[in-house]
Amino acid sequence: MIEKITAANLDAIANPVLRDYARRYVDIEAGFREAAAAFGVPFAERAAGEAVAPDGVTARPAGTAAQTAGAASASDGAAPTVSAPAGLRVLNDGKSLVANWQSSACEVCRLGLGTETFVMTLACPRRCFFCFNPNQADFDDRAPGPRDVVAQLEARAAQGARYTHLALTGGEPLLYPDDTVTFFRRAKELFPGVHTRLYTSGAGLDENLLARLRAVGLDEVRFSIKTDDAPKDREAVLGLIRRACAFIPDVMVEMPVMPDEVALMKELLVRLDGFGVRGINLLELGFPFFNGQEFARRGYQLKAEPYGVLYDYAYAAGLPVAGSEEACRELLAFVLDEGLSLGAHYCSMENKHTGQVFQQNAPHAATYPLRQMSPRDHFLKSAKVFGADRGPARDALTAAGAPFQDDGDFDFTEFSLVALPALEATMPYAPVAISYAICEPREGEVVLRELRLDLTTPATFHEADW
Fold first, then answer.
1. Which pLDDT does position 58 carry in this prediction?
2. Cβ(134)–Cβ(288) under 8 Å?
3. What is the pLDDT of residues 349-385, one digit of tens each?
4. How many CB atoms neighbour CB 51 within 10 A?
5. Which stretch, 76-80, 134-138, 276-280, has highest mean pLDDT?
6. Which residue has the higher pLDDT, 444 or 132?
7. What are the CA-CA distances from residue 459 to residues 19, 138, 416, 428 (Å)?
8. Are 190 and 152 in contact (CB under 8 A)?
9. pLDDT in tens, 181-196
10. What is the DSSP annotation of 390-456?
11. Alpha-carbon distance 130 to 126, whole Å?
């Protein structure tokens, strides 16, 4: 059993040193929630009967197939297990759910190996209320375009980069159609066999440009559909998608799912399947700390438990909106129940982050022998005992031949999670903290930053939980 330490259970921790140490993370989360809510979109209340699992996933009671597609469930505080209807694949510890086909680009995205997405420009003719480009750290500098993405490609090749997948996005890259075509032609020249994809709203796209993109070997195009467009504008984009199927091998749609538009999305899925669209990425809607009045006007709230581990993630979409995940699950069940042929992939906000965590931690994991990189979320994790529990723990670890490290400043002893069973015989129900950490580059060096603590005991810990 692993339990997240929260304001609700903090005072129940009997060890005063651990309780005081853990309080800082409870206070950090409280401060974060207060700051996030100040943007005008409140957090949703956790529904009755729900519990927070160790990875931050909110466990839900079982329901119909459409309600429970890919739902996480937990019992007795154990880590959640993910159940799914037949035909639905559960990937990345439940952060990614797939019916039918999935783009190979999505598969490599989970670890971020051999793939890169280049930004032509952040300028765009659309004004989507949920757009997170204004939340980019250097939005003001990057909005004008185009950027010389071909020169960037050539620089990567000169540095010896090796790619299996390359993408071009924006803003709207097709504001610069010639540069877009040149990018994909050069990508194939510099990295033979690379899979290429384009993100677009369809602005400026016609059959002539589709033919040019086919000629330079574009493998995949992902269209965004704006559900709040006027019907005639939405039909125009759907017409482009249908025509693109005759030119590009894999035509996809990628769009965030609004919690209150499930019926409209089901109609779109049926039509896209009829066009021969290869797949759709159903994105969890995010609030990008921007345009809060519009989110509030629509009655949207932030997900009660936005992330398992709070961190400064590079993906700029902000915080997940309550209800979007459930809507995506219902749409996946619809695809299966209706026997649609197109692939449908639910990509959660958490799914977007795992590649970053892996990339930051994997190169340095061996530097910290008392920590192991979790196969579930890629954070570096260790066990800590505090105060009066340190002496008995050190004795048990020494008897087992397990290494440990003392910290006198914070009065704890740290050791590997794989050594935790060594404490069970002598201190089975002593409180043990599980520490989550990430490696960060700072001023030319890499430092280890602790982000969160969970609570367990030697008798109730299961290695599969972490």
1. 41
2. yes
3. 999 999 999 999 999 999 999 999 999 999 999 999 9
4. 17
5. 276-280
6. 444
7. 20, 49, 16, 5
8. no
9. 999 999 999 999 999 9
10. HHHHHHHHHHHT--EEEETTTTEEEE-GGGGGGGTTT-TT--EEEEEEEEEEETTEEEEEEEEEEEE
11. 11
Which helix or strand (DSSP H or E) is residue 99 part of?
strand 96-99
Give the span between the Cα atoms of 100 and 97, in whole angstroms.
Answer: 10
Tokens of 85: 């209807």
Are 211 and 231 spatial neighbours (Cβ–Cβ below 8 Å)?
Answer: no
Rg (CA), the chain: 24
Helices (H), 111-194: 139-142, 149-158, 177-190
Per residue in 218-239, pLDDT (tens digit) is 999 999 999 989 999 999 999 9
Residues in the chain: 466
Closest CA to 231 of 205, 260, 264: 264
Tokens at 150, concatenated: 């071909």
For residues 370 and 404, the answer to whether their CB atoms sit within 8 Å is yes
Write down the mean pLDDT value for the chain: 90
Characterize 426-447 residue by residue with b for buried, 16 or more Cβ atoms within 10 angstroms of its Cβ, and e for exposed.
ebeebbbbbbbbbbeeeeeeee
Burial (CB < 10 A; 0-12, 13-18, 19+), residue 141, is: exposed
Q: What are the structure tokens assigned to 132, written together?
A: 């997170």
In this structure, which amino acid lies at residue 192? P
Biggest CA-to-CA distance, the chain: 75
pTM of the model: 0.90
How large is the angle between the packed helices 324-337 and 262-275, nearest 10 degrees? 40
Helix (H, G, I), strand (E, B) or coil at 365: helix
DSSP state of 127: -
CB atoms within 10 A of CB 24: 11
Q: Is 103 helix (H, G, I), strand (E, B) or coil?
A: coil
The angle formed by the CA atoms of residues 256, 262 and 266, to the nearest 5 degrees, is 95
Pick from 35, 34, 57: which is nearest to 46 by CA?
A: 57
pLDDT of residue 133: 75
Q: Tell me the one-letter amino acid at 239.
A: G
Nearest by Cα to 163 from 115, 95, 198, 208: 115
Cβ burial 52-87 (10 Å sphere, 16+ → b, else e): bbbbbbbbbeeeebbebbbbbbbeebbbbebebbee
* Burial status of residue 456 (CB atoms within 10 A of its CB: 0-12, 13-18, 19 or more): buried
